[in-house]
Amino acid sequence: MRDARGARQVAEGALAWVSAHRERFALGEDALAADGQVNRSWKPLGELAQVCATVCRHTAPPDPLHARAAGLMAFAWQETGRGELFLRLHRLEPFATYPLEVYAAMAAAGLRHAGYEEAAATVARTRSWQLTEQEPTRRLGVLNAESRSGIRQSDAMPQALRRTWLAGLPEPWTFEQSSGYSLTHVVFHLTDWGRAGPGYLPTDLADYLADWLPPWLDTCLDAGMWDLGCELLAVAASLPLLPEPAVLDDAWERVAAVQHPLGAVPEQGGGADHDGSPDFLSHYHPTLMAAFAATLTLGRLGDGAGAAPPHPPGGQGVLG
Is 307 within the bounds of a domain? Predict the structure, then answer.
C-alpha cells in the first residue's frame, strides 16, 4: 500500500506558505507598462492560478487544501480586475501570448471575461498569430491555452508535439536540466495540467517515461534539484501506471526533508538551513510545483490508481 502522508505533508505546508505570502503575487503598478517585468508580475500570478486550479479540481470542498486554493484563486482573479486587465493588456500587446496563457489558467477554473475572449479570438484567427515561430514546447502551451480558453480549437498539437525532445524518445543518458523542464511541460500541456488525465499521453511516450522517469527523478533529487524534482513528480502522477510505491515514498520523504518548517521548498541545494525566512523569489516556484505534484499524487493514490486508465480512442492521445 502506498503511503500518501509525505505528499500530504508537503502539500499542506506549501499552500500554507503560499497563502502567507500571497501579497507577493500581487500585480504592481507596472503590470501594464511597456517595460514591465513580466517574469516578476504576470508569470508568478499565472503560476499561482494554474496550481490552484489543479488543486481545486483534485480535492473535495471540505478538504483544507481545496479551501486554501480557492481563496488564492479568488485573490488572483481579483488582481486581474476580474479579467479586465487582460483586455487592457491585449489592447497594448495584441500579439503577446503570455496574457492568454495566464488567462487560460483562470478560465480552467471557470473565471472568464467575455470581452477579452472575443478580442483574443479575433487575433488568434490571423495568419500572423498562427504562423508565429515558437519553441515546440511553448507552442504546445499556446495551443493548449487557446483550447482551454475557448477562443480557438486547433489540430496543430500533434505537429508541435512531434518536434519536442520528449516525442523523439531520445537516448535516456542525454537527459539534462533543460530537457527535463521541456519534457515536464510537454506532459503538463498534453494532460491539461492534470485535468485531462493520463489517458491523453500517447502510448509510446507513456511507456518511455515509465522506464526512465524513476532514474531521472532519483538523479535530480540526489543533486538537490528540488524544483525540477517536483515537476518530475507531477509527471509521475500523470502516467497511466504510477511508479513503484518505494519510488514515490522515497521521493516524497526527501522533498519533505528539505521543506522549510514554514512550508517553502528550495529551488536547489541542501535545504538543511531552516534558519530565517525563505526568500520569496527563489522559493515560490518550487513551492508551487511541490503543491501541484503532491495534489496530483494524492488524487491518484486516493483513487487507487494502480491500473492504467484507458487511452482515448486509438490509444494515441493527440497523436491519433
Answer: no
